[in-house]
Write a structure and sequence with these properties.
The chain has 246 residues and is of the alpha/beta class. It is 30% helix and 26% strand. The protein folds into two domains: 161 residues, Rossmann fold; 66 residues, no CATH class. The longest helix is centred in the last third of the chain and has 18 residues.
C-alpha cells in the first residue's frame, strides 16, 4: 500500500498518482510556526495516519490542505490545486474535491438528516431534486443509516451523528477524505464501529484518506501509512507499517 498497488497480474505493480504532494513546507497557524520542513504525500489508494498528541500540528496540517489556513512556504499540491497560488475564491472549488469529517460532527440541529445533507448539495449548486434525493439515500446507505433519514441530530447517538458526518463527506464523491480526530468524542466501542466503517468505505471505494488521531491503538488494527507529528516536525514512521496488498 502507498507507493505501489498490485494490478491484474500477481507481482505487477502500478505507481499510483499523488493527490497530495507537499515538499519542504512550513505550516503556520496565524503567525506561529507549527511544523517545519514538511514532506508529506498521499497517493490514490492510501490510508494515511497523522499520529501525535493534541497540539502537535495534525489539525493545522489538515486545515492547510483544505484551505482554511494559508500556505506560505515550500510547495504543495492538493487534488490539482497549487496551494501557493490558491486564492480565497478557489477554496470552495478545492473543498468540492474533498470530503472533510470533524471531531464535533458540525450538523445543523434545527433540521433533519435529509435536510442537513440536502443543504450541502444545494450549497454547491445541485438543483435536480431526484439526483439530490438519490445521492443522499446512497450516501446514507453506505453508512447504514438509511432508516434515520427523517430523524434530527438530537435523536441520534454520537456514533450515529458521526456516521451522518461521514455520509456528508461522501456526497460529492471526493478525491480525498480528510478526517480530523473523528473518534475523539466517542467511547471505545463506538470508536471501533466508526473505524470499521471508515476502513470498509476505504476498501470499497479506494478513496484515499488522511486520518488524524492521537489513538495509537488504531494503527495496530487498521493498517496504514503513518506520519508522526511532534516537536514542530513530521516524519514518516514505517515501524508499524503493514501492507494491505500482499
Amino acid at each position: 500500500m502507498g507507493e505501489a498497488t498490485e494490478i491484474n497480474n500477481p507481482g505487477v505493480f502500478k505507481i499510483m498518482p499523488r493527490v497530495v504532494d507537499i515538499k519542504n513546507a512550513t505550516i503556520m497557524h496565524h503567525d506561529h510556526v507549527v511544523l517545519e520542513n514538511v514532506n508529506f504525500e498521499v497517493r490514490k489508494g492510501d490510508f494515511v495516519y497523522l499520529i501525535g498528541r493534541t497540539g502537535s500540528g495534525k489539525s493545522s496540517l489538515l486545515k492547510t490542505l483544505y484551505g482554511d489556513l494559508p500556505f506560505k512556504s515550500g510547495t504543495a499540491d492538493v487534488c490539482g490545486y497549487n496551494l501557493s497560488a490558491l486564492k480565497r475564491s478557489d477554496v470552495p472549488n478545492l473543498r468540492r474535491r474533498l470530503g472533510i469529517v470533524f471531531q464535533d460532527f458540525q450538523l445543523l440541529t434545527d433540521r433533519s438528516i435529509f435536510d442537513n445533507l440536502e443543504f450541502v448539495l444545494k450549497a454547491i449548486g445541485w438543483e435536480d431534486k431526484n439526483k439530490i434525493k438519490n445521492t443522499i439515500e446512497e450516501s446514507l446507505a453506505m453508512v447504514k443509516l438509511q432508516d434515520k433519514i427523517r430523524k434530527f441530530p438530537n435523536q441520534l447517538s454520537g456514533g450515529e451523528q458521526q456516521r451522518v458526518a461521514i455520509a456528508r463527506a461522501l456526497l460529492n464523491h471526493p478525491e480525498l477524505i480528510l478526517a480530523d480526530e473523528p473518534t475523539g468524542n466517542l467511547d471505545p466501542e463506538t470508536t471501533d464501529e466508526i473505524m470499521d466503517l471508515f476502513y470498509s468505505i476505504f476498501k470499497e471505494t479506494q478513496t484515499p484518506m488522511v486520518f488524524a488521531t492521537h489513538n495509537y491503538q488504531l494503527i495496530e488494527k487498521y493498517p496504514g501509512i503513518i506520519y508522526m507529528c511532534g516537536y514542530n516536525c513530521i516524519s514518516r514512521d514505517d515501524s508499524h507499517f503493514k501492507p494491505m496488498y500482499q
